[in-house]
């Protein structure tokens, strides 16, 4: 470096210092970028865990809504179920958007859609059952009117049609109607059997009436009466079909409920493990980056100081030597040799003075 000019030496040292501190800044920036990426990944995992937890909570509430709906089929529980499923759909979309392609999440989402479709099918079947029940009530009222009309007609012909029956047919129809309502609420097999037995007994009792009919008008009226009774029983059977068709679906939904909750819990635990693993590794990586950055900065600072000291000494030492020689020359020592091997500005000045002193 002695052969270089002072200006070049200064420029070289400044460049080296800039390079060292530049490397430190680049390393620090790279570490910061990695740290931010790690923190973003950790935040995503945290958001995913929160979303899974929200899905679990909303699904649990939807399950309670479904149970309450099955108890009394009220509209508010139906709306509550749909509201919670809507929340779940939103959370699942967030999960699917922020998570790399996941077979588990896709399967959970598919199961949730099936669960919702099954519920809508139950709602539809219940609506059908209600429609059939309304039709049953209308038919029973019509049948009661026909029984009264038929009884009036038999009296006109002096035929004792209903007097021999163990119970007034109108009362029997009313009792059947009450039992049907009871079955509609309970959905129990015993109540269904009671209704069917009442229909069977009622038909058997009415069969005795037919033997006492003496003319075609009465027979035709009785035949129409029996047809309407058959229609009433068929409508009840439609109610039964609509209600009993729900049972397999309810069973499927219960199995799906358990499976979905287990899958959600497994997914949440898996994400939690990833989060718990990533957290300490991020801390360790950040600490390592901070340590390396500090070391690199200290090294750059120390090297810079050494180079500055070297630069100062490379300038001041020749100057001091040159000053001492000038003082010797001033005091009369003409043998002083001003020659210098250095080719910088100081060396050039010393060599020029040496030429002048010869």
Walkthrough of the structure:
The chain is mainly α and 358 residues long. It folds into three domains: 6-122 and 248-304, Up-down Bundle (Four Helix Bundle (Hemerythrin (Met), subunit A)); 132-246, de novo design (two linked rop proteins); 316-357, Helicase, Ruva Protein, domain 3, CATH 1.10.8. It is built from eight helices and no strands. The protein is rod-shaped, with a radius of gyration of 50 Å.
Question: Which helices and strands occur, and which strands form pairs?
Answer:
Blueprint: H1 6-72, H2 75-98, H3 103-156, H4 169-186, H5 189-211, H6 216-244, H7 246-330, H8 345-357
Helix pairs in contact: 1-2, 1-7, 2-3, 3-4, 3-6, 3-7, 4-5, 5-6
Based on the structure given, which CATH architecture of the largest domain is correct?
Up-down Bundle
Question: Based on DSSP secondary structure assignment, what is the total number of beta strands?
Answer: 0
Average pLDDT value? Answer: 84
Percentage of residues in helical conformation: over 70%
Order of helices and strands, N to C? HHHHHHHH
CATH top level label of the largest domain: Mainly Alpha
Apparent shape: rod-shaped
Query: Uncertain runs with pLDDT below 50, 5 residues or more?
Result: none
Number of spatially distinct domains:
3
* Number of H- or I-type helical stretches: 8
CATH superfamily of the largest domain: Aspartate receptor, ligand-binding domain
DSSP strand (E) fraction? under 5%
The profile of the biggest β sheet is: none
| Structural class by secondary-structure content | mainly alpha
CATH topology tier name of the largest domain: Four Helix Bundle (Hemerythrin (Met), subunit A)
What Rg, in angstroms, do the CA atoms define? 50 Å
Measure the end-to-end span.
29 Å
